[in-house]
Amino acid sequence: MSSTMKVVNTKSELIELLEEAKKTGKTVGFVPTMGALHEGHISLLTECKRHCDVSVLSIFVNPTQFNDPADLERYPRTPEKDFSLLEDNGCNIVFYPSVEEIYPEQDTRKFDFGYIESIMEGAKRPGHFNGVAQVVSKLFYIVKPDKAFFGMKDFQQIAVIKKMVEILKMPIEIVECPIIREKSGLALSSRNKLLSDEHKKNAPHIHSILKKATNLATEIPTSELKEFIKKEIDKNSYLETEYVEIVDAETLRVITEPYPETKTVVCVAVYAGKIRLIDNIAINPSNAQH
To answer: Do the domain assignments include residue 165?
Structure first.
């Protein structure tokens, strides 16, 4: 690829560009995003460039994964700023399609992810993961990447995408990348742009309680640990916990007693005003990169 970044709006142009690159034996890495980019996305792009010859990043706010129309409306969109950030960070191709380009007709596919979509985000946002699978599979069919890169903040989403790749028998490696945080500890998210100053100031409380929980994990039963996390987060009047779940990192099975040797992750969703934030942390040392 030439060093100048290309912004592409159509599937046909993107496919043509990538076929040329693949003919010369180049590997393709892919980072799907909904834009409003931040350092977390750039860390995914950096990993992508480290592993693959050609980096492709998509910016597409996918309507089928929003179960609340107001949330879709509110989602931040900053394409010009995103393009300039990507150019500065050496991205090769940006795919910036319209809704019509991705969904020339309605996508009626229904995926069955079984248990992993029945808890946490799946339970609270019905249809959300089906929408994620619709758009990511469409993007995968277009880009046909060797590897695709996802951030661990969306912990459950990664499990869903791995399952989707398995169901559709796609020869794509899903690469998990660590959560990137602000100095305050707040997990980077495009939604952080929507927080009021006061909520932004108080949101790091979520991560500080999760860190405390890791120290208590071996001392108290899971039911008490969940109660502790919820109570401590909710002590902050700017925050309201929607759920706390403690799950097996591989299967997402809810962990009851006692802590197994397997990798275990605490996942939370918390409202800061109207804005919903998610975060997670590993609670045993074998998986402490969170």
So the answer is: yes
